[in-house]
Amino acid sequence: MNIEIKKLTKNYGKKIALKDASLVFPKGKITIILGPSGSGKTTMLRLIAGLLYPTSGEVLFDDTNVSNRPANKRNVAMAFQNYPLFPHMTVVENLRFPLESKKEGKLFKFNVYSEEEIEKKVNEISSLLHIEEHKDKYPSQLSGGEKQRVAIGRELIRDPDVFLFDEPLSNIDARLRYEMRMWIRKLHELLNKTMIYVTHDQSEAMALGDMIVLLDDGKIAQVGSPDELYYDPSSKFVAQFIGNYPMNFLSFTVEKNKCKLTADKKNSLPEKASKFILSKGIKKGTLGFRAETIREFDHKKPIDKDMFKLECNVEDVEKVLDQQILTLNYRGEQIFYVTKTKKRFSKKDSISVIVYSDDIYIFDEKYERV
Ligand code: ADP
Ligand code: MG
């Protein structure tokens, strides 16, 4: 099912939690709603689920306006951070529960599913979830990941049109989270359902999503594939939020048709970046480059017009397995540099790094990408 939101706005009293959001969640894909805490992710998801009604705007399911339809009439499944299983029921009983609902008939209530149908579905779901050996256990006897799989299974068994997740892995320990991500990807391949997945964790978003919607304070900052958000961020906010290491930023000014770093007016930007800035007629702004794209300056190789050099001091070294994450000081500005070199750095070392023209992003005074 295709889901569309049109100018969707939600206010809580004076607080605008979501403002004018318009977007299509493509059929059969995993779309991630990503953003810092309080940016409106849960609000967006609950509006789609029908657990909240919009202040203005619309929610469309396959072109039908469902904005005023309650959650139980939308055929959506939901999984949250806390897996609300019934503690007094076994795994099988929990899974059967949604299928045992009765429908009001003319004379008496009747079962929606026959006993054989229920058993068949429970068996299918248990094998899909890899929980066959836990079928007779109670929730308290399961690990976090197992509980979450049962909770997801209980939603799946109703055969929903749409799957909504709100930070379902945040209570699960880091090691297991990788496994669960893989499992969610597999589940998606098997079911081919439209899935919307909320997370504040950009690495989870990058790993799971076909498409990412990044929210910033109730507004959509950017929509795109993981690669588009990483390689082509539309603003400084996006550039900062996406990536395993913080992006580096230095301000620049244009004086007498030359682009210079504000921290060191003697240091001109590489030719390509300079030309680009001059062509846009910007007088000042910020340039950004990622910690993983800079290189240590090699004295044997002269710098050319497509790179520039920053002479820095090492302020801090963090060693993570085969990587060193260096915090450098460039004339009072902080620069992060990630390297896999065998050479060991220590505090107070001096180091020169090279930034390549092609790795530079330019932002204007309003922090929009140019
Ligand atoms: P997220 O899921 O991204 O952390 P939410 O959608 O939960 O963000 O919340 C967005 C904003 O709306 C936050 O500032 C939050 O404090 C506010 N908010 C959420 N629910 C309510 C509510 N029921 N009443 C008042 N403010 C709320
Ligand atoms: Mg939330």
Concise description?
With 370 residues, the chain is α+β, with helices and mostly antiparallel strands. The protein has helices at residues 41-49, 91-96, 115-129, 144-156, 174-191, 202-208, 226-231, 236-241, 271-280; strands at residues 3-12, 15-25, 30-34, 56-61, 64-65, 76-79, 102-104, 109-111, 162-166, 194-199, 211-216, 219-224, 247-255, 258-261, 264-268, 284-290, 295-296, 307-320, 323-330, 333-339, 350-356, 361-363. It has 9 helices and 22 strands.
Helix and strand arrangement:
Blueprint: E1 3-12, E2 15-25, E3 30-34, H1 41-49, E4 56-61, E5 64-65, E6 76-79, H2 91-96, E7 102-104, E8 109-111, H3 115-129, H4 144-156, E9 162-166, H5 174-191, E10 194-199, H6 202-208, E11 211-216, E12 219-224, H7 226-231, H8 236-241, E13 247-255, E14 258-261, E15 264-268, H9 271-280, E16 284-290, E17 295-296, E18 307-320, E19 323-330, E20 333-339, E21 350-356, E22 361-363
Parallel strand pairs: 3-10, 3-11, 6-9, 9-10
Antiparallel strand pairs: 1-2, 1-4, 4-5, 7-8, 11-12, 13-14, 13-16, 14-15, 16-22, 17-21, 18-19, 18-21, 19-20
Task: Please provide a written account of the structure.
The chain is of the alpha+beta class. It has two domains: 3-235, P-loop containing nucleotide triphosphate hydrolases (Rossmann fold, 3-Layer(aba) Sandwich), CATH 3.40.50; 248-363, Beta Barrel (OB fold (Dihydrolipoamide Acetyltransferase, E2P)), CATH 2.40.50. Helices cover 24% and strands 36% of the residues. It contains nine helices and 22 strands. The protein has helices spanning 41-49, 91-96, 115-129, 144-156, 174-191, 202-208, 226-231, 236-241, 271-280, and strands at 3-12, 15-25, 30-34, 56-61, 64-65, 76-79, 102-104, 109-111, 162-166, 194-199, 211-216, 219-224, 247-255, 258-261, 264-268, 284-290, 295-296, 307-320, 323-330, 333-339, 350-356, 361-363. Strands 6-9-10-3-11-12 form a six-stranded mixed sheet, with helices on both faces. A hairpin with a 2-residue loop joins strand 18 and strand 19. The protein is elongated. The mean pLDDT is 92.
